[in-house]
Structures are given as structure tokens and as C-alpha cells.
Amino acid sequence: MNLPILPTIKSVTDLRYQTADIIRLLEQNQPVLVTRDSDTIAVMLSPTLYQQIIHLFEELEEKKEASKLAEAIEKGDQFTDFLEFDKKQRKKKKII
């Protein structure tokens, strides 16, 4: 996935008067940084680029969760053996 690194920088005034040009940039998957008095106030992305970023974050979260699960399985301390659990419950309830 190729995400653009260098955005186009436009001022709020540019946004007001060059809206069509800025939309064309967004349609080309070019992010636009919006500034006011030299301060960044917004970042504009095309829907496609936004979805790519969201998808990337979801993949990273899934990998992180899978890694945690694999680690827990290796340790074995977060999982209870069902037969042991059942035996304790039966003993506790005097079913045995």
C-alpha cells in the first residue's frame, strides 16, 4: 500500500477560493494540509485514502491481538484446562 508522504499545503483562503482545484487533488489521492496563520488546522483525504489508512490500522490491531493471544497460549497461564475446571466445579458442588 503506497500512502503519499508529502501533502499539498493550502490555506483556508485557498480552500475558499480554489475548492475545485483542491477537490481534484483529493481525487488523485493527494492529501491536503489546510493551514491558517501558518498553523495546521486540518488534513483532507480522499475517501479511498482514508479507507486505506483505516484498513492499515485494523490490520495492525489484528496482528497485535493475534500476537497477544499467541503469547498467552505459550504461557498457558491465562487458559484453564476444561477437565480441571469441571473437576473443581463438581467437587465444589459435591456432584462427584
Describe this structure in words.
With 96 residues, this protein is an alpha+beta fold. It has a single domain (8-92), classed as 3-Layer(aba) Sandwich (YefM-like fold), CATH 3.40.1620.10. Helices cover 57% and strands 16% of the residues. The chain contains four helices and three strands. Strands 1-2-3 form a three-stranded mixed β-sheet. A hairpin with a 2-residue loop joins β2 and β3. The chain is rod-shaped and about 80 Å long. The N and C termini lie far apart (59 Å). The model has no long low-confidence stretch (mean pLDDT 86).
Q: What is the count of helical runs?
A: 4
User: What's the number of domains?
Assistant: 1
Order of helices and strands: EHHEEHH
Rg: 26 Å
Most strands sheet: 3 strands, mixed
Query: Could you give the count of β-strands?
Result: 3
Helix content: 55-70%
SS strand fraction: 15-25%
Distance between the termini: 59 Å
Q: At CATH's second level, what is the architecture?
A: 3-Layer(aba) Sandwich
What's the mean pLDDT score? Answer: 86
CATH fold naming: YefM-like fold
CATH superfamily: YefM-like domain
CATH class: Alpha Beta
Shape: rod-shaped
| Strand order across the largest sheet | 1-2-3
Residue runs with pLDDT of under 50 for 5 or more positions: none
Determine the structural class based on helices, strands and strand pairing.
Answer: alpha+beta
